Structures are given as C-alpha cells and as structure tokens.
C-alpha cells in the first residue's frame, strides 16, 4: 500500500510539473500567438487587397467582353442583309435597263416600271443601302475601272457602266466605270 501511495504521490507530482510546464508554455504561446496573429492579420490584409484587385479586374474584363459582344451583334445585325441586298441590286439594274430601253415614250408600262424602281430604291434607302457617288472623280475604294474613256479628263469618271452601292457605309458592290487617262 505504501508503494501505491508513493506511486500516486509521484504521479501527482509529475502531473503538477506537467501542468506547470503547460501553464508556462501557454503563457509563452499566448505571447507568440499575439505576434503571430498580428502577422497573420497583415498577411490577410494583403491577401484581401490582392483578391479585391483581382475581383475588380474580373468585373472590368467581363464588362469589356459584354461590350465587345454587343458591338459584334450590332455589326452582324447591320450587315445580315448583305447577301439579300446584293440579290436585289440585280433587280434594280434590270429595272433601270428597262427604263433606258423604253426610250422617251411615256407608256403605262414604263410608268409602272419607274414606280417599281422608285419603291425598291426607297426600301433600300430605309435599310441604309445607298448608291456610290460617281460625281467626285475616281476613287479606287468605291469604283472599279473597267476601261479607259478617251473623252474624260485624267482621274475622272467618263462613263458609269453599273452603279455601285454601299450598305451602312461598307462597300456592297463597286461602281463599274470607265476612267480618263
């Protein structure tokens, strides 16, 4: 029994020593912990700044992508009529040829063709399709020179063989012209 009592006393002493060491360690840990916590707060503040900057950059980039997609959609809508408009230009050309072929005589048929042409041209204008200007001289961006006109001055358009058209400022079909030398 005495041995057991001694062992219990030793165990209590060891437990008390361990408690004392734990208390001292906890006090030291508290001091280190406060410093560590302050360092962690600094690191977290820097990390927060970085993440805020990344989030702001992501928002900025998404807005730019949104604007670009809207611009591309507007452009696609604007020029979606391009193939259809090119097909209509052949009809305009044919109506103009019919009017030229009729000559000076005003017949009801000629008046009908002229009204049809006028209606078609006004519809084209509503959709921003306009004839290319041929009065201000030759412009290689808008005109296609297919021959030389000896009667025209150099750089000027002598004869328009086929009208050119633009769709919302973009060339749809160049004007086929003869140019002076």
Automatic annotation (TrEMBL):
Localization, UniProt: Cytoplasm
Keyword Chaperone: yes
GO biological process entries: protein folding
Main location: cytoplasm
GO cellular component annotations of the record: cytosol
Ranges annotated as biased composition (Acidic residues): 14-34
Alphabetical list of InterPro entries matching this protein: GrpE, GrpE_CC, GrpE_head
Entry keyword annotation includes Membrane: no
Span list, region Disordered: 1-34
Domain of life: Bacteria
Pfam families with a match to the protein in the record: GrpE
Matches recorded under Gene3D superfamilies: 3.90.20.20, Head domain of nucleotide exchange factor GrpE
GO molecular function, one term: protein-folding chaperone binding
Keywords noted in UniProt: Chaperone, Cytoplasm, Stress response
Quaternary structure and partners: Homodimer.
HAMAP family the record matches: GrpE (MF_01151)
PANTHER family to which the protein is assigned, alphabetical: GRPE PROTEIN (PTHR21237), GRPE PROTEIN HOMOLOG, MITOCHONDRIAL (PTHR21237:SF23)
Family, per entry: Belongs to the GrpE family.
Function: Participates actively in the response to hyperosmotic and heat shock by preventing the aggregation of stress-denatured proteins, in association with DnaK and GrpE. It is the nucleotide exchange factor for DnaK and may function as a thermosensor. Unfolded proteins bind initially to DnaJ; upon interaction with the DnaJ-bound protein, DnaK hydrolyzes its bound ATP, resulting in the formation of a stable complex. GrpE releases ADP from DnaK; ATP binding to DnaK triggers the release of the substrate protein, thus completing the reaction cycle.
UniProt-recorded name of the protein: Protein GrpE
Encoding gene per record: grpE
């Amino acid at each position: 029994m005495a041995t057991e009592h001694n062992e219990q006393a030793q165990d209590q002493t060891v437990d008390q020593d361990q408690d004392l060491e734990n208390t001292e360690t906890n006090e030291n840990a508290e001091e280190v912990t406060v410093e560590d916590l302050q360092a962690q707060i600094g690191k977290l503040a820097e990390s927060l700044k970085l993440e805020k900057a990344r989030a702001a950059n992501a928002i900025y980039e998404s807005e730019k992508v949104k604007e670009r997609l809207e611009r591309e959609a507007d452009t696609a809508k604007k020029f979606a009529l391009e193939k259809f408009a090119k097909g209509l230009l052949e009809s305009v050309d044919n109506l103009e040829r019919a009017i030229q072929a009729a000559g000076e005589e005003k017949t009801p048929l000629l008046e009908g063709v002229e009204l049809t042409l006028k209606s078609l041209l006004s519809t084209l204008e509503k959709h921003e399709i306009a004839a290319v200007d041929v009065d201000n001289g030759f412009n290689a961006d808008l005109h296609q020179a297919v021959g030389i006109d000896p009667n025209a001055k150099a750089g000027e358009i002598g004869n328009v063989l086929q009208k050119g058209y633009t769709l919302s400022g973009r060339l749809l079909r160049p004007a086929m012209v003869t140019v002076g030398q």
